[in-house]
């Protein structure tokens, strides 16, 4: 009986070792894919939650996104907050496609790449600070000139 118990425990430990190894390999593959997409400046971020400056966080699902394609930023993000200077198109979304004025990518932490983007539209000037983690998750902080700041989180589309 003791031999059977030891055999079962040994088999379980071996299975966990293999499972852990597969998880580590998958994490490494995801990390490599994330870095390749960021370095190519060609990626799409799917937004799950928005965090307005003056309201509680809200789940927004997967229809909203931020996309970088070379030197162009496509933004379709929900917006909730105070607009300091209204224009015809100022509304509930940050919806535009525009050439970026600047794009800076830095690796500040071991598992995180920070990207700074600035873009000017007819309505506002935006600074995006994006932290993309090696597992594909991200945090995004948007600082407009004529609106309250807002932040988002979600996942990189792999």
UniProtKB/TrEMBL annotation:
This is DUF4251 domain-containing protein. The lineage of its organism: Bacteria, Pseudomonadati, Bacteroidota, Bacteroidia, Bacteroidales.
